[in-house]
Fold these 4 entries.
Entry 1:
Amino acid sequence: MPKIDVGRIWSLNFRLLMSVIVDVAPDITELGLETKELFVLAELDEHPHPAELAGVLSMPKPSVTVYVKRLEAAGFLRREIDCADLRRHRLILTPEGRKTMTRGLALLSKAFAARLARLNPAQQSQLATLLEKLG
């Protein structure tokens, strides 16, 4: 059995994901977002605190702060004092932010679906199973 080149698998996965992101970046920009800002919006419901977002998205906290300020200024999110801990802010998607996030994620999904269409249904199912095992 040939030796698996783990670095190559990682590189192929990274290139696939980046090609999807690069393809839709102009459309995401038209929504008034940077791609990383879209990922921030997409995680807000599950991770409403800036420090949590930084950890989940593997972003430096100062970068998340910059994105949050821009998203707040654009009307895509709002900050509220967290009632459970008055020292922290909770980030909440606005209706406009949710609509924009949904559109942005649909763009990513459509571009990724075009790549998945290169696989037959059985291969797509196998890929999903394998990715779930890795996740």
Entry 2:
Amino acid sequence: MGMFSESVDVVCSAAGQPESLTWAGASYTVCAEPVRWYERRQWWAEETRAPLGSGPGVVDHEIWRVQVLSSPMASQPPAPEEPDGAEPLTLDLTRHIRSNRWRLLRIHDALHRRTA
């Protein structure tokens, strides 16, 4: 899938790493160690100037790549089409440092096993 930007609710650990998220009414649990990096953004299109020495939040986006599994609702049994060995979904999230709001940036296509 491509890039887009959609609001998500993220619950983080005490260390600030994403642990779970809610997106489009569904709950997901992070199932692997998340990876964080920073990407340059076009700050000049949004700000009149960047203060000297600025970085995360002004010049850079904080990006987290997470692998998640769907969390079944407490009142619902697992769906029959979702076996116990369900494949994780890989997402890229960004956190706006000043507002602490999270957005979903990318959904990576899962690799499907090929059979001969």
Entry 3:
Amino acid sequence: MEFNPGNPVIKLCVQGIDMEEKGKPEDASQLFMQAWNEATNDFEKFTAAHYVARRQKDAADKLKWYQTALQFALKVNDDAVKGAFAGLYVHIAKCYEELGDADNAKKNRELAISAAHTPSDKGPFYHGTRADLKVGDLLTARRTSNYDTEVVMNHIYFTAVGNNAGLAAALAKGDGQEHVYIIEPTGSFENDPNVTDKKFPGNPTRSYRTEQPLKIVGELTDWARQSPEDLQKWRERLAGNKGKIIN
């Protein structure tokens, strides 16, 4: 199961998030419910149910939707959803606490602790950029950000989703050709905290970071390109992002 920012259900969820940030919760709720109604596979249903859940005002309704999200996440049970399990169990535990069910709250908090894990993703992995590189080159940290020339990154970032690396390349500053390089981490890595549980539950984009070099072992030439209109929307989101980069 691969996260795709061009997926219609994901687009609806993104639009709902935008409405939340604009202080329009009712519009957000409608978009999230539309996403749920249009979802056709387990990953889409998991994602939409998570957003429907967080718009619920009643603890029982919230619990029902978070349990629904968990049900579909367990069906998927791959690297696109594993990072969400701990958060889902925490949400469910909080609902039980509000409902006065201490036993189930405790049980789900214990499940949240057991679900916390370091990434087990085996790849393949990709890095999107406009830099012209070759097989054998090393990508290293402590270089200028692809998106903000005033920021020097302490880590080097990569993903296990080729289409997302392609989007990263398209959004990178500069006039060079877009490249998606196939890379191999040379050391340990962790979930990218800038995306994990921020917009989407867990780490569905399978985005990671490391302080160790990434070795280029090839280049991906075929990935889903975003339309000019969609790219402009992503650029506007980047430009309007008020959150601080966790570096």
Entry 4:
Amino acid sequence: MASLGTPKFARFRVGVGRPLSPRVDPIDYLLSPFSRKERALLPSVRAGVADALILALESGLDKAMEVYNRPGSLGCTEVA
């Protein structure tokens, strides 16, 4: 936002979930390496993000948000 000088731009954010234990610092969780299960999901997440970007370009941001702003919409579910 600082580089563009405005907060008015489309952002595609991919969530990383939350720590399973309340004793885990969210910062440590966010910066930790992916687990084996999480790494296995990366190809489907990348493909889902690519599909969301294409839909946004072809049909608009509102349509992409309608389709992809829900759990499991990027081809994966939360890892437990």
